[in-house]
Amino acid sequence: MKGTILNFDLSIKSGVIAGDDGERYSFTLDQWKSAGQPGIGGRVDFVNGIDSATDVYRDVASSSGGSKKIAAALLALFLGVFGIHKFYLGYKTQGLIMLLVFVLGFVLFGVPSLIVSIIAFVEFIIYILKSDEEFEQVYVVGRKPWF
User: Fold this and answer.
1) What is the distance of C-alpha 143 from the center of its chain?
2) How would CATH label the architecture of 2-62?
3) Contact 3, 27 (CB under 8 A)
4) What secondary structure does DSSP assign to 35-56, as a single string?
5) How confident is residue 63, by pLDDT bands cut at 50, 70 and 90?
6) What is the model's pTM?
7) Distance (Å, rounded) from C-alpha 66 to C-alpha 40?
8) Domain residues of the chain, as ranges?
9) For 23-52, how does the pLDDT look when each residue is reduced to its tens digit (9 = 90+)?
């Protein structure tokens, strides 16, 4: 059965899934079978137990992390100095910081602009090297803005 994670509390290691059948199912971290941790709003595939979900897996087929990963990586490579990849991932503050440092960096003989371009290239490499699932967990669900 498929569903969406409504809530997950790491301190008590349990959460709630809204099944596509309209019912709610509790689950624990012991029942989570995918890499990483469950994230709120994530689509999952699970076995319907009695009042709980078992064998809970991240539903990679419905995940948008793969397409976000490639787009974010390409934006980081070609337009990363302007922070476009940050804006694309929803990090407006970090995108604005990169844009302003790059544009205003020429006042200081281009050194800050060079640093921003190196950061963008490093982020491109990091994005490409992560699996689709890991990228989604870290940057889309986990909202990690830098590296």
Assistant:
1) 6
2) Beta Barrel (2.40)
3) no
4) SS---TT-EEEEEE-SSBEEEE
5) low
6) 0.60
7) 18
8) 2-62, 65-141
9) 999 999 999 998 778 888 888 999 998 779
